[in-house]
Protein backbone atom coordinates (compact mmCIF):
# COMPACT_ATOMS: atom_id res chain seq x y z
CA UNK A 1 0.00 0.00 0.00
CA UNK A 2 2.78 2.33 0.99
CA UNK A 3 4.63 1.54 -2.23
CA UNK A 4 1.57 2.30 -4.36
CA UNK A 5 1.12 5.59 -2.46
CA UNK A 6 4.75 6.56 -3.05
CA UNK A 7 4.49 5.74 -6.77
CA UNK A 8 1.25 7.70 -7.09
CA UNK A 9 2.66 10.76 -5.36
CA UNK A 10 5.82 10.59 -7.51
CA UNK A 11 3.65 10.52 -10.65
CA UNK A 12 1.68 13.52 -9.39
CA UNK A 13 4.90 15.44 -8.59
CA UNK A 14 6.38 14.65 -12.04
CA UNK A 15 3.10 15.66 -13.73
CA UNK A 16 2.95 18.96 -11.79
CA UNK A 17 6.60 19.64 -12.63
CA UNK A 18 5.93 18.94 -16.30
CA UNK A 19 2.93 21.26 -16.30
CA UNK A 20 4.96 23.99 -14.58
CA UNK A 21 7.78 23.54 -17.07
CA UNK A 22 5.37 23.67 -19.98
CA UNK A 23 3.80 26.87 -18.64
CA UNK A 24 7.14 28.54 -18.55
CA UNK A 25 7.70 27.89 -22.23
CA UNK A 26 6.88 30.16 -25.13
CA UNK A 27 3.98 28.88 -27.25
CA UNK A 28 4.61 26.48 -30.11
CA UNK A 29 3.28 23.39 -31.88
CA UNK A 30 3.16 20.19 -29.90
CA UNK A 31 5.93 17.83 -30.92
CA UNK A 32 6.09 14.04 -31.03
CA UNK A 33 7.66 12.11 -28.15
CA UNK A 34 11.46 11.84 -28.45
CA UNK A 35 11.85 13.50 -31.87
CA UNK A 36 9.92 16.65 -30.95
CA UNK A 37 9.18 18.85 -33.99
CA UNK A 38 12.01 17.48 -36.11
CA UNK A 39 9.80 15.51 -38.46
CA UNK A 40 7.53 18.41 -39.41
CA UNK A 41 10.53 20.71 -39.83
CA UNK A 42 12.24 18.25 -42.16
CA UNK A 43 9.07 17.39 -44.09
CA UNK A 44 7.65 20.89 -44.40
CA UNK A 45 6.43 21.11 -47.98
CA UNK A 46 6.47 24.91 -48.14
CA UNK A 47 10.15 25.14 -47.20
CA UNK A 48 11.62 25.99 -43.83
CA UNK A 49 11.48 29.78 -44.20
CA UNK A 50 7.77 29.92 -45.02
CA UNK A 51 7.05 27.28 -42.37
CA UNK A 52 8.79 29.38 -39.70
CA UNK A 53 6.92 32.48 -40.90
CA UNK A 54 3.60 30.60 -40.60
CA UNK A 55 4.55 29.56 -37.07
CA UNK A 56 5.21 33.15 -36.04
CA UNK A 57 1.85 34.25 -37.48
CA UNK A 58 0.16 31.58 -35.42
CA UNK A 59 2.12 31.70 -32.15
CA UNK A 60 3.83 35.10 -32.05
CA UNK A 61 7.41 36.42 -32.27
CA UNK A 62 8.93 33.77 -29.96
CA UNK A 63 8.02 30.18 -30.79
CA UNK A 64 9.11 27.06 -28.94
CA UNK A 65 10.07 23.94 -30.89
CA UNK A 66 12.18 21.00 -29.98
CA UNK A 67 14.82 19.48 -32.21
CA UNK A 68 15.10 16.05 -30.60
CA UNK A 69 16.34 16.85 -27.11
CA UNK A 70 17.34 20.46 -27.90
CA UNK A 71 14.89 23.21 -26.97
CA UNK A 72 14.73 25.56 -29.95
CA UNK A 73 13.37 29.10 -29.99
CA UNK A 74 12.42 30.83 -33.22
CA UNK A 75 12.64 34.63 -33.15
CA UNK A 76 10.59 36.51 -35.75
CA UNK A 77 10.39 40.17 -34.76
CA UNK A 78 12.90 42.99 -35.09
CA UNK A 79 12.25 44.02 -31.48
CA UNK A 80 13.17 40.60 -30.12
CA UNK A 81 16.12 40.24 -32.52
CA UNK A 82 17.43 43.56 -31.21
CA UNK A 83 17.05 42.37 -27.63
CA UNK A 84 19.05 39.22 -28.40
CA UNK A 85 21.70 40.64 -30.72
CA UNK A 86 22.16 43.97 -29.00
CA UNK A 87 20.73 44.36 -25.49
CA UNK A 88 21.54 40.83 -24.31
CA UNK A 89 24.35 40.33 -26.81
CA UNK A 90 26.79 38.97 -24.23
CA UNK A 91 24.50 36.10 -23.26
CA UNK A 92 24.03 35.19 -26.94
CA UNK A 93 27.56 35.21 -28.29
CA UNK A 94 27.94 31.52 -29.09
CA UNK A 95 26.47 29.38 -31.83
CA UNK A 96 25.17 25.82 -31.41
CA UNK A 97 28.20 23.50 -31.77
CA UNK A 98 26.92 21.10 -34.43
CA UNK A 99 28.94 18.06 -35.51
CA UNK A 100 29.71 18.97 -39.15
CA UNK A 101 30.75 22.54 -38.39
CA UNK A 102 32.89 21.55 -35.42
CA UNK A 103 34.78 18.93 -37.39
CA UNK A 104 35.49 21.16 -40.39
CA UNK A 105 36.55 24.07 -38.16
CA UNK A 106 39.21 21.94 -36.42
CA UNK A 107 37.08 21.77 -33.28
CA UNK A 108 35.85 25.36 -33.42
CA UNK A 109 39.24 27.09 -33.52
CA UNK A 110 38.10 29.29 -36.41
CA UNK A 111 36.08 32.48 -36.14
CA UNK A 112 32.61 31.52 -37.39
CA UNK A 113 32.01 28.36 -35.33
CA UNK A 114 34.14 29.03 -32.28
CA UNK A 115 32.25 29.47 -29.02
CA UNK A 116 32.48 32.91 -27.47
CA UNK A 117 35.75 32.83 -25.53
CA UNK A 118 39.16 34.53 -25.38
CA UNK A 119 40.33 32.56 -28.41
CA UNK A 120 37.43 33.87 -30.54
CA UNK A 121 38.07 37.44 -29.31
CA UNK A 122 41.72 37.18 -30.31
CA UNK A 123 41.03 35.60 -33.72
CA UNK A 124 38.41 38.21 -34.48
CA UNK A 125 40.74 41.03 -33.37
CA UNK A 126 43.57 39.70 -35.55
CA UNK A 127 41.28 39.33 -38.57
CA UNK A 128 39.71 42.76 -38.17
CA UNK A 129 43.19 44.26 -38.04
CA UNK A 130 44.97 42.23 -40.71
CA UNK A 131 42.25 41.02 -43.04
CA UNK A 132 39.05 43.02 -42.91
CA UNK A 133 40.50 46.51 -42.31
CA UNK A 134 39.62 49.12 -44.97
CA UNK A 135 43.32 49.23 -45.92
CA UNK A 136 43.48 45.48 -46.55
CA UNK A 137 40.15 45.45 -48.37
CA UNK A 138 41.48 48.19 -50.64
CA UNK A 139 44.69 46.26 -51.26
CA UNK A 140 42.60 43.42 -52.74
CA UNK A 141 40.92 45.78 -55.25
CA UNK A 142 43.08 44.69 -58.23
CA UNK A 143 41.99 41.07 -57.64
CA UNK A 144 38.31 42.02 -57.73
CA UNK A 145 38.72 44.16 -60.85
CA UNK A 146 40.77 41.53 -62.66
CA UNK A 147 38.23 38.80 -61.91
CA UNK A 148 35.22 40.88 -62.97
CA UNK A 149 37.10 41.75 -66.16
CA UNK A 150 37.62 38.02 -66.80
CA UNK A 151 33.94 37.27 -66.20
CA UNK A 152 32.91 40.00 -68.66
CA UNK A 153 35.35 38.71 -71.28
CA UNK A 154 33.94 35.23 -70.82
CA UNK A 155 30.37 36.43 -71.38
CA UNK A 156 31.43 38.32 -74.47
CA UNK A 157 33.25 35.39 -75.96
CA UNK A 158 30.48 32.88 -75.28
CA UNK A 159 29.29 32.32 -78.82
CA UNK A 160 28.20 28.71 -78.59
CA UNK A 161 24.66 28.70 -77.24
CA UNK A 162 24.60 32.36 -76.20
CA UNK A 163 22.78 31.27 -73.06
CA UNK A 164 24.71 32.22 -69.95
CA UNK A 165 24.45 30.26 -66.73
CA UNK A 166 24.86 33.30 -64.52
CA UNK A 167 24.63 31.23 -61.32
CA UNK A 168 27.74 29.29 -62.33
CA UNK A 169 29.54 32.43 -63.42
CA UNK A 170 28.79 34.27 -60.17
CA UNK A 171 30.04 31.33 -58.09
CA UNK A 172 33.18 31.07 -60.16
CA UNK A 173 33.78 34.82 -59.79
CA UNK A 174 33.34 34.66 -56.01
CA UNK A 175 35.67 31.68 -55.53
CA UNK A 176 38.28 33.22 -57.83
CA UNK A 177 38.21 36.44 -55.80
CA UNK A 178 38.59 34.55 -52.51
CA UNK A 179 41.37 32.36 -54.00
CA UNK A 180 43.20 35.55 -54.99
CA UNK A 181 42.68 37.11 -51.57
CA UNK A 182 43.51 34.00 -49.55
CA UNK A 183 46.06 32.13 -51.68
CA UNK A 184 47.47 34.87 -53.89
CA UNK A 185 46.53 32.92 -56.98
CA UNK A 186 43.55 32.28 -59.16
CA UNK A 187 42.71 29.13 -61.00
CA UNK A 188 41.47 28.86 -64.52
CA UNK A 189 37.96 27.38 -64.51
CA UNK A 190 39.11 24.14 -66.13
CA UNK A 191 42.16 23.70 -64.02
CA UNK A 192 41.98 20.47 -62.09
CA UNK A 193 42.75 22.11 -58.74
CA UNK A 194 39.99 24.70 -59.11
CA UNK A 195 37.41 22.03 -59.85
CA UNK A 196 38.67 20.01 -56.91
CA UNK A 197 38.47 23.04 -54.64
CA UNK A 198 34.95 23.95 -55.84
CA UNK A 199 33.74 20.39 -55.21
CA UNK A 200 35.36 20.27 -51.79
CA UNK A 201 33.83 23.60 -50.75
CA UNK A 202 30.37 22.55 -51.99
CA UNK A 203 30.63 19.22 -50.14
CA UNK A 204 31.86 21.01 -46.98
CA UNK A 205 28.91 23.40 -47.12
CA UNK A 206 26.48 20.49 -47.45
CA UNK A 207 28.15 18.57 -44.61
CA UNK A 208 27.95 21.58 -42.31
CA UNK A 209 24.16 21.67 -42.46
CA UNK A 210 23.50 17.94 -42.78
CA UNK A 211 21.37 16.23 -40.18
CA UNK A 212 23.45 14.36 -37.57
CA UNK A 213 21.60 12.22 -35.04
CA UNK A 214 24.26 13.00 -32.46
CA UNK A 215 23.36 16.72 -32.57
CA UNK A 216 19.81 16.07 -31.45
CA UNK A 217 19.74 12.87 -29.48
CA UNK A 218 22.06 12.15 -26.60
CA UNK A 219 24.31 9.13 -26.22
CA UNK A 220 24.86 6.32 -28.67
CA UNK A 221 23.20 7.93 -31.70
CA UNK A 222 26.62 8.70 -33.26
CA UNK A 223 26.47 5.04 -34.29
CA UNK A 224 23.57 5.95 -36.60
CA UNK A 225 25.64 8.77 -38.12
CA UNK A 226 28.42 6.29 -38.76
CA UNK A 227 26.07 3.73 -40.27
CA UNK A 228 24.47 6.35 -42.53
CA UNK A 229 27.87 7.02 -44.10
CA UNK A 230 27.76 10.69 -43.12
CA UNK A 231 30.71 10.44 -40.74
CA UNK A 232 32.80 8.78 -43.46
CA UNK A 233 32.02 11.62 -45.89
CA UNK A 234 32.80 14.18 -43.22
CA UNK A 235 36.16 12.58 -42.37
CA UNK A 236 37.04 12.34 -46.05
CA UNK A 237 36.15 15.97 -46.75
CA UNK A 238 38.12 17.11 -43.71
CA UNK A 239 41.23 15.17 -44.78
CA UNK A 240 41.05 16.48 -48.37
CA UNK A 241 40.57 20.09 -47.27
CA UNK A 242 43.36 19.74 -44.74
CA UNK A 243 45.76 18.37 -47.37
CA UNK A 244 44.91 21.25 -49.69
CA UNK A 245 45.56 23.91 -47.05
CA UNK A 246 48.71 22.10 -45.97
CA UNK A 247 50.02 22.20 -49.55
CA UNK A 248 49.21 25.89 -49.95
CA UNK A 249 50.91 26.80 -46.68
CA UNK A 250 53.89 24.69 -47.68
CA UNK A 251 54.12 26.60 -51.01
CA UNK A 252 53.99 29.91 -49.17
CA UNK A 253 56.82 28.85 -46.86
CA UNK A 254 59.09 27.99 -49.78
CA UNK A 255 62.19 30.25 -49.97
CA UNK A 256 61.37 31.06 -53.62
CA UNK A 257 57.96 32.47 -52.68
CA UNK A 258 58.23 36.26 -53.21
CA UNK A 259 54.74 37.65 -53.80
CA UNK A 260 54.29 41.18 -55.09
CA UNK A 261 51.12 41.45 -53.00
CA UNK A 262 50.59 39.71 -49.67
CA UNK A 263 47.66 37.31 -49.47
CA UNK A 264 45.98 36.01 -46.32
CA UNK A 265 48.35 33.04 -45.95
CA UNK A 266 51.35 35.43 -46.16
CA UNK A 267 49.78 37.68 -43.52
CA UNK A 268 49.15 34.76 -41.18
CA UNK A 269 52.66 33.34 -41.66
CA UNK A 270 54.10 36.79 -40.95
CA UNK A 271 52.06 36.99 -37.77
CA UNK A 272 53.16 33.53 -36.69
CA UNK A 273 56.81 34.39 -37.30
CA UNK A 274 56.52 37.59 -35.24
CA UNK A 275 54.60 36.02 -32.34
CA UNK A 276 54.68 32.21 -32.61
CA UNK A 277 52.11 31.69 -29.84
CA UNK A 278 49.57 34.08 -31.32
CA UNK A 279 48.12 31.55 -33.79
CA UNK A 280 48.47 27.81 -34.50
CA UNK A 281 48.58 26.12 -37.92
CA UNK A 282 45.17 24.56 -37.28
CA UNK A 283 43.75 28.00 -36.56
CA UNK A 284 45.20 29.33 -39.81
CA UNK A 285 43.67 26.43 -41.77
CA UNK A 286 40.34 26.87 -39.99
CA UNK A 287 40.35 30.56 -40.96
CA UNK A 288 40.99 29.70 -44.60
CA UNK A 289 37.97 27.42 -44.43
CA UNK A 290 35.90 30.33 -43.03
CA UNK A 291 36.84 32.59 -45.92
CA UNK A 292 35.63 29.99 -48.38
CA UNK A 293 32.49 29.01 -46.59
CA UNK A 294 31.42 32.51 -45.51
CA UNK A 295 32.89 34.61 -48.30
CA UNK A 296 32.15 32.83 -51.57
CA UNK A 297 28.58 31.73 -51.93
CA UNK A 298 27.15 34.68 -49.95
CA UNK A 299 28.63 37.01 -52.55
CA UNK A 300 27.51 34.78 -55.45
CA UNK A 301 24.00 34.50 -53.97
CA UNK A 302 23.72 38.30 -53.58
CA UNK A 303 24.63 38.82 -57.26
CA UNK A 304 22.18 36.15 -58.44
CA UNK A 305 19.24 37.26 -56.29
CA UNK A 306 19.73 40.88 -57.40
CA UNK A 307 19.74 39.88 -61.08
CA UNK A 308 16.71 37.64 -60.47
CA UNK A 309 14.84 40.47 -58.74
CA UNK A 310 15.60 42.81 -61.65
CA UNK A 311 14.58 40.24 -64.28
CA UNK A 312 11.23 39.94 -62.52
CA UNK A 313 10.73 43.72 -62.55
CA UNK A 314 11.66 45.03 -66.00
CA UNK A 315 10.83 48.64 -65.11
CA UNK A 316 13.31 48.61 -62.21
CA UNK A 317 15.88 46.84 -64.41
CA UNK A 318 15.48 49.60 -66.99
CA UNK A 319 15.72 52.35 -64.39
CA UNK A 320 18.90 50.83 -62.89
CA UNK A 321 20.54 50.47 -66.29
CA UNK A 322 19.59 54.02 -67.32
CA UNK A 323 21.03 55.37 -64.05
CA UNK A 324 24.28 53.49 -64.54
CA UNK A 325 24.63 54.41 -68.22
CA UNK A 326 23.84 58.09 -67.55
CA UNK A 327 26.37 58.23 -64.71
CA UNK A 328 29.04 56.67 -66.90
CA UNK A 329 28.45 58.95 -69.91
CA UNK A 330 31.69 60.50 -71.01
CA UNK A 331 33.88 57.78 -69.56
CA UNK A 332 36.26 56.68 -72.29
CA UNK A 333 36.31 52.99 -73.00
CA UNK A 334 39.77 51.62 -72.46
CA UNK A 335 40.99 49.66 -75.48
CA UNK A 336 40.26 45.94 -75.32
CA UNK A 337 38.61 46.26 -71.92
CA UNK A 338 35.19 44.73 -71.54
CA UNK A 339 34.89 45.95 -67.95
CA UNK A 340 33.92 49.60 -68.11
CA UNK A 341 33.19 50.40 -64.52
CA UNK A 342 35.91 50.28 -61.88
CA UNK A 343 35.65 50.63 -58.12
CA UNK A 344 36.17 54.42 -58.24
CA UNK A 345 32.93 54.69 -60.21
CA UNK A 346 30.73 52.86 -57.71
CA UNK A 347 30.11 55.94 -55.57
CA UNK A 348 28.49 57.54 -58.61
CA UNK A 349 25.88 54.75 -58.71
CA UNK A 350 23.52 55.42 -55.78
CA UNK A 351 20.51 53.72 -57.37
CA UNK A 352 22.44 50.50 -57.93
CA UNK A 353 23.50 50.50 -54.27
CA UNK A 354 19.86 50.89 -53.23
CA UNK A 355 18.87 48.03 -55.56
CA UNK A 356 21.48 45.75 -53.96
CA UNK A 357 20.31 46.68 -50.47
CA UNK A 358 16.66 45.99 -51.36
CA UNK A 359 17.73 42.64 -52.76
CA UNK A 360 19.60 41.85 -49.52
CA UNK A 361 16.41 42.71 -47.62
CA UNK A 362 14.14 40.41 -49.60
CA UNK A 363 16.68 37.68 -50.36
CA UNK A 364 19.25 37.66 -47.54
CA UNK A 365 21.99 35.16 -48.53
CA UNK A 366 22.12 33.92 -44.92
CA UNK A 367 18.41 33.85 -44.00
CA UNK A 368 18.66 32.30 -40.51
CA UNK A 369 21.01 33.32 -37.70
CA UNK A 370 21.96 30.88 -34.97
CA UNK A 371 22.81 31.55 -31.32
CA UNK A 372 23.14 29.45 -28.17
CA UNK A 373 23.00 31.05 -24.70
CA UNK A 374 25.63 29.60 -22.39
CA UNK A 375 23.74 30.47 -19.20
CA UNK A 376 20.06 30.42 -18.29
CA UNK A 377 18.56 33.61 -19.62
CA UNK A 378 15.20 35.38 -19.63
CA UNK A 379 13.54 36.39 -22.89
CA UNK A 380 10.04 37.88 -22.99
CA UNK A 381 9.52 36.76 -19.41
CA UNK A 382 10.35 33.13 -20.20
CA UNK A 383 13.29 31.49 -18.54
CA UNK A 384 15.32 29.82 -21.28
CA UNK A 385 17.75 27.11 -20.29
CA UNK A 386 21.43 27.25 -21.23
CA UNK A 387 22.22 25.19 -24.34
CA UNK A 388 18.94 26.00 -26.10
CA UNK A 389 19.20 26.92 -29.75
CA UNK A 390 17.94 30.29 -30.97
CA UNK A 391 17.06 30.66 -34.65
CA UNK A 392 16.63 34.29 -35.65
CA UNK A 393 14.54 34.37 -38.79
CA UNK A 394 16.23 37.25 -40.62
CA UNK A 395 14.28 36.40 -43.78
CA UNK A 396 10.92 36.69 -42.00
CA UNK A 397 11.87 39.80 -40.01
CA UNK A 398 12.68 41.71 -43.21
CA UNK A 399 9.18 40.88 -44.53
CA UNK A 400 7.28 41.87 -41.40
CA UNK A 401 4.30 44.12 -42.26
CA UNK A 402 4.50 45.61 -38.73
CA UNK A 403 7.72 47.36 -39.69
CA UNK A 404 7.84 47.64 -43.47
CA UNK A 405 5.40 49.32 -45.82
CA UNK A 406 4.45 46.87 -48.59
CA UNK A 407 7.12 44.44 -47.39
CA UNK A 408 6.85 42.04 -50.35
CA UNK A 409 7.39 44.81 -52.92
CA UNK A 410 10.83 45.51 -54.35
CA UNK A 411 11.31 49.24 -53.66
CA UNK A 412 14.98 50.38 -53.79
CA UNK A 413 13.84 53.93 -52.99
CA UNK A 414 13.46 52.85 -49.33
CA UNK A 415 17.18 53.42 -48.98
CA UNK A 416 17.36 56.79 -50.75
CA UNK A 417 16.90 60.40 -49.76
CA UNK A 418 16.97 63.27 -52.29
CA UNK A 419 18.06 60.88 -55.07
CA UNK A 420 21.08 59.78 -53.04
CA UNK A 421 21.75 56.44 -51.39
CA UNK A 422 21.57 57.23 -47.70
CA UNK A 423 24.02 55.43 -45.40
CA UNK A 424 22.22 56.75 -42.31
CA UNK A 425 18.92 55.19 -43.41
CA UNK A 426 20.66 51.89 -44.15
CA UNK A 427 22.53 51.86 -40.85
CA UNK A 428 19.33 52.75 -39.03
CA UNK A 429 17.44 49.81 -40.54
CA UNK A 430 20.32 47.32 -40.16
CA UNK A 431 22.29 48.28 -37.06
CA UNK A 432 19.86 50.37 -35.00
CA UNK A 433 16.34 48.97 -35.55
CA UNK A 434 17.38 45.56 -36.91
CA UNK A 435 14.46 45.59 -39.35
CA UNK A 436 16.73 43.72 -41.72
CA UNK A 437 19.72 41.55 -40.84
CA UNK A 438 21.54 40.51 -44.03
CA UNK A 439 24.84 40.67 -42.14
CA UNK A 440 23.50 39.51 -38.77
CA UNK A 441 24.27 41.71 -35.80
CA UNK A 442 26.03 42.24 -32.49
CA UNK A 443 29.46 40.83 -31.70
CA UNK A 444 29.00 37.85 -34.03
CA UNK A 445 27.81 39.99 -36.93
CA UNK A 446 29.53 39.53 -40.31
CA UNK A 447 33.06 40.99 -40.37
CA UNK A 448 33.28 40.53 -44.16
CA UNK A 449 30.64 43.06 -45.27
CA UNK A 450 33.28 45.60 -46.38
CA UNK A 451 35.08 42.85 -48.27
CA UNK A 452 31.97 41.40 -49.97
CA UNK A 453 30.05 44.52 -51.00
CA UNK A 454 32.64 45.94 -53.46
CA UNK A 455 32.66 42.63 -55.39
CA UNK A 456 28.86 42.59 -55.56
CA UNK A 457 28.62 46.22 -56.70
CA UNK A 458 31.42 45.87 -59.26
CA UNK A 459 30.04 42.68 -60.81
CA UNK A 460 26.47 43.96 -61.06
CA UNK A 461 27.46 47.43 -62.31
CA UNK A 462 29.37 45.90 -65.22
CA UNK A 463 26.79 43.22 -66.05
CA UNK A 464 24.03 45.83 -66.13
CA UNK A 465 26.04 48.48 -67.94
CA UNK A 466 27.37 46.39 -70.79
CA UNK A 467 24.52 44.00 -71.52
CA UNK A 468 20.77 43.92 -71.83
CA UNK A 469 19.33 40.69 -70.47
CA UNK A 470 16.55 38.38 -71.51
CA UNK A 471 15.37 35.21 -69.89
CA UNK A 472 16.49 32.07 -71.75
CA UNK A 473 13.59 29.78 -72.62
CA UNK A 474 13.18 26.62 -70.71
CA UNK A 475 13.95 23.75 -73.08
CA UNK A 476 11.03 21.59 -72.00
CA UNK A 477 8.20 24.06 -71.89
CA UNK A 478 9.48 26.83 -74.10
CA UNK A 479 8.27 29.29 -71.51
CA UNK A 480 10.52 32.03 -70.17
CA UNK A 481 10.69 31.30 -66.50
CA UNK A 482 12.36 33.31 -63.79
CA UNK A 483 11.50 31.82 -60.44
CA UNK A 484 12.51 32.57 -56.87
CA UNK A 485 12.62 29.04 -55.46
CA UNK A 486 15.40 28.70 -52.91
CA UNK A 487 17.51 25.80 -51.71
CA UNK A 488 17.75 25.20 -47.97
CA UNK A 489 21.22 25.52 -46.40
CA UNK A 490 23.46 27.92 -44.49
CA UNK A 491 23.38 30.14 -47.57
CA UNK A 492 20.12 30.62 -49.45
CA UNK A 493 20.86 29.82 -53.10
CA UNK A 494 18.47 30.05 -55.99
CA UNK A 495 17.31 26.47 -56.63
CA UNK A 496 17.25 26.66 -60.41
CA UNK A 497 20.23 28.29 -62.10
CA UNK A 498 19.66 31.72 -63.57
CA UNK A 499 19.90 31.17 -67.33
CA UNK A 500 19.97 34.40 -69.32
CA UNK A 501 20.61 35.67 -72.82
CA UNK A 502 22.82 38.74 -72.95
CA UNK A 503 22.81 41.29 -75.75
CA UNK A 504 25.65 43.71 -75.80
CA UNK A 505 24.48 47.27 -75.18
CA UNK A 506 24.56 49.15 -78.49
CA UNK A 507 27.05 51.79 -77.30
CA UNK A 508 29.59 49.09 -76.79
CA UNK A 509 29.36 47.10 -79.97
CA UNK A 510 32.83 46.21 -81.10
CA UNK A 511 33.02 45.23 -84.81
CA UNK A 512 34.49 41.75 -84.16
CA UNK A 513 32.19 41.03 -81.22
CA UNK A 514 30.58 37.58 -81.50
CA UNK A 515 27.40 38.69 -79.72
C1 LIG B 1 27.02 39.62 -49.28
C2 LIG B 1 28.00 39.07 -48.64
C3 LIG B 1 27.88 38.51 -47.25
C4 LIG B 1 26.76 38.29 -46.49
C5 LIG B 1 25.31 38.56 -46.86
C6 LIG B 1 27.21 37.75 -45.22
C7 LIG B 1 26.39 37.42 -44.16
C8 LIG B 1 26.82 36.92 -42.95
C9 LIG B 1 25.96 36.59 -41.84
C10 LIG B 1 24.45 36.75 -41.82
C11 LIG B 1 26.74 36.12 -40.84
C12 LIG B 1 26.25 35.64 -39.47
C13 LIG B 1 26.18 36.86 -38.57
C14 LIG B 1 25.48 36.62 -37.25
O1 LIG B 1 25.35 35.48 -36.81
O2 LIG B 1 25.05 37.61 -36.63
C15 LIG B 1 28.11 36.16 -41.29
C16 LIG B 1 29.19 35.77 -40.53
C17 LIG B 1 30.48 35.76 -40.99
N1 LIG B 1 30.90 36.21 -42.23
FE1 LIG B 1 29.78 37.04 -43.68
N2 LIG B 1 28.57 37.64 -45.25
C18 LIG B 1 29.03 38.10 -46.46
C19 LIG B 1 30.33 38.16 -46.90
C20 LIG B 1 31.41 37.73 -46.18
C21 LIG B 1 32.78 37.73 -46.66
C22 LIG B 1 33.19 38.23 -48.05
C23 LIG B 1 33.55 37.18 -45.68
C24 LIG B 1 35.02 36.93 -45.65
C25 LIG B 1 35.81 36.95 -46.67
C26 LIG B 1 32.67 36.86 -44.57
C27 LIG B 1 33.08 36.30 -43.39
C28 LIG B 1 32.25 35.99 -42.31
C29 LIG B 1 32.73 35.38 -41.07
C30 LIG B 1 34.16 34.98 -40.75
C31 LIG B 1 31.61 35.25 -40.24
C32 LIG B 1 31.57 34.69 -38.83
C33 LIG B 1 31.79 35.80 -37.81
C34 LIG B 1 31.79 35.32 -36.35
O3 LIG B 1 31.14 34.34 -36.02
O4 LIG B 1 32.47 35.98 -35.53
N3 LIG B 1 31.38 37.20 -44.90
N4 LIG B 1 28.13 36.64 -42.58
From TrEMBL:
Pfam name, any one: p450
CDD domains: CYP71-like
Membrane spanning residue stretches: 6-21
Subcellular location: Membrane
Cofactor: heme
Membrane topology qualifier: Single-pass membrane protein
InterPro entries named among the record's database cross-references: Cyt_P450, Cyt_P450_CS, Cyt_P450_E_grp-I, Cyt_P450_sf
Keywords recorded for this protein, A-Z: Heme, Iron, Membrane, Metal-binding, Monooxygenase, Oxidoreductase, Transmembrane, Transmembrane helix
SUPFAM superfamilies attached to this UniProt entry: Cytochrome P450
Any single GO CC term annotated in Swiss-Prot or TrEMBL for this entry: membrane
Molecular function, one GO term: iron ion binding
Primary location recorded for the protein, binned into one broad class: membrane
Superkingdom of origin: Eukaryota
List of residues binding heme: 446
Family: Belongs to the cytochrome P450 family.
Name assigned to this protein: Cytochrome P450
Taxonomic lineage: Eukaryota, Viridiplantae, Streptophyta, Embryophyta, Tracheophyta
Amino acid sequence: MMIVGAVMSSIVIIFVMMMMRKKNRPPGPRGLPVVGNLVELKRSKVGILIYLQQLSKRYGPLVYLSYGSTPTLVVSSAKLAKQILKTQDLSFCSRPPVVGQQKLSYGGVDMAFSPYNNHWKEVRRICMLHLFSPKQVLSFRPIREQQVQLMMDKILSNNSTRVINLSEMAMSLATNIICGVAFGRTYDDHEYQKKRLDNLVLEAQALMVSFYFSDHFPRLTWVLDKLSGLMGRLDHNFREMDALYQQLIHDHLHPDHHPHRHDVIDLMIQLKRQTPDSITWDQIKALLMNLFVAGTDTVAAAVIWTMTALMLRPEIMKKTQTHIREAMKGKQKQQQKMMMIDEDDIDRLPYLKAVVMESLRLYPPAPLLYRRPTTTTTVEGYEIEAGSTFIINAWGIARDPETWENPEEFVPERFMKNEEYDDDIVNGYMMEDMWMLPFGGGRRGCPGMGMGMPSIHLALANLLYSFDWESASNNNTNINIIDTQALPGLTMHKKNPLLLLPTIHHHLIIPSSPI
